[in-house]
């Protein structure tokens, strides 16, 4: 079968790979679309904290396909098989059914990216109706879903912050009340607080660095800050006084740590919202034979899909 094959750590190439054969408790899924995520880039580059993948192997941790006549979302394929192939080997128990009304690309986006956003707001921050939410890095797929998710979950005010002006316009169209352009304001903390009407209860942060420090200064008493990435820098000099004085809670999040049923419930809730037209994601489809182009497009404001 054709697949995105990793023969050395770096960028996979389209090539032939052995067909998967299901063993006990396994199933073979016909893949219709696979997602590309920062974690895939790290894994293929041999930089993933859990270890390097075997060589050769097929790239990709998530996808949508057909299993026993039904459309399903799947993740964590059985090594050395991955999602970026015509077929993959999976645990059928861990799949999520995809509603007919939800496009393959959106269904993939609701997986790794969508869960990072939704679980940060619910499982980690325990967002309450009426609370004000600040979404840093709102231009990315996680940020886009977080803006919409906060609105669906009943946030009283949603502020989107990012560097891209066009992406911020899209955030406003997706439901953000205000947008703050990073790198433009002289006093970022004041700009964030003003946009949030002086109240920030929950912060979702895939950036770290300077934006995270500004969010600490802008956060309200008792606010919860969920840290999920470091796109703006691996290091930050964080002041202790506002953390103590405002009794802030700073917590990390990774989808890997969430219980299976928590993830399933979250995915099904997002899928229902997407089916009802309440949640949307921009996607970009790239053929498997051009998988290297997909790698070059990672980091755009669209969900990158590799199509077998």
Overview features:
single chain; 308 residues; alpha/beta; 7-stranded mixed beta sheet; 10 helices; 16 strands; 31% helix; 24% strand
Account of the protein in words:
- The protein is of the alpha/beta class.
- 31% of the residues lie in helices and 24% in strands.
- The protein has 10 helices and 16 strands.
- It has helices at 38-44, 104-109, 112-124, 141-152, 165-173, 188-195, 209-218, 240-245, 260-275, 291-297, and strands spanning 2-6, 13-16, 27-35, 57-58, 62-67, 70-75, 87-90, 96-97, 132-136, 157-162, 178-181, 202-205, 224-227, 249-252, 283-287, 303-307.
- Strands 3, 5, 6, 7, 8, 15 and 16 form a 7-stranded mixed sheet that branches.
- Strand 13 (224-227), helix 8 (240-245) and strand 14 (249-252) form a beta-alpha-beta unit.
- Helix 3 (112-124) crosses helix 4, helix 3 crosses helix 9 and helix 6 packs across helix 7 (209-218).
- It is globular and about 60 Å long.
- The termini are close together.
- The model has no long low-confidence stretch (mean pLDDT 96).
């Amino acid at each position: 079968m054709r697949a995105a094959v990793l023969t050395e750590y770096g960028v996979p190439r389209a090539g032939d790979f052995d067909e998967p054969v299901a063993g006990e408790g396994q199933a073979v899924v016909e893949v219709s679309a696979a997602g590309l995520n920062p974690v895939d880039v790290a894994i293929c580059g041999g930089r993933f904290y859990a270890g390097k993948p075997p060589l050769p192997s097929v790239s990709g941790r998530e996808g949508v396909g057909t299993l026993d006549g039904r459309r399903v979302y799947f993740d964590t394929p059985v090594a050395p098989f991955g999602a970026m192939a015509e077929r993959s080997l999976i645990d059928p128990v861990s799949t999520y059914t995809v509603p007919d009304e939800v496009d393959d690309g959106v269904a993939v986006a609701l997986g790794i990216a969508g869960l990072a956003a939704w679980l940060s707001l619910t499982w980690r921050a325990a967002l309450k109706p009426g609370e004000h939410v600040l979404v840093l890095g709102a231009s990315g797929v996680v940020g886009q879903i977080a803006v919409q998710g906060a609105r669906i979950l009943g946030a009283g005010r949603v502020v989107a912050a990012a560097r891209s002006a066009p992406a911020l316009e899209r955030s406003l169209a997706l439901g953000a009340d205000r947008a703050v352009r990073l790198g433009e304001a002289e006093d970022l903390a004041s700009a964030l607080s003003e946009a949030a009407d002086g109240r920030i209860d929950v912060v979702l942060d895939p950036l770290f660095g300077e934006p995270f420090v500004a969010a600490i200064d802008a956060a309200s008493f008792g606010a919860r800050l969920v840290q999920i990435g470091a796109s703006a820098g691996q290091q930050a000099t964080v002041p202790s006084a506002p953390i103590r004085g405002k009794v802030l809670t700073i917590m990390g999040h990774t989808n890997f740590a969430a219980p299976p049923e928590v993830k399933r419930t979250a995915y099904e809730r997002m899928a229902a919202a997407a089916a009802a037209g309440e949640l949307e994601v921009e996607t970009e489809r790239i053929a498997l034979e051009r998988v290297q182009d997909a790698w070059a497009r990672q980091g755009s404001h669209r969900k990158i899909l590799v199509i077998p």
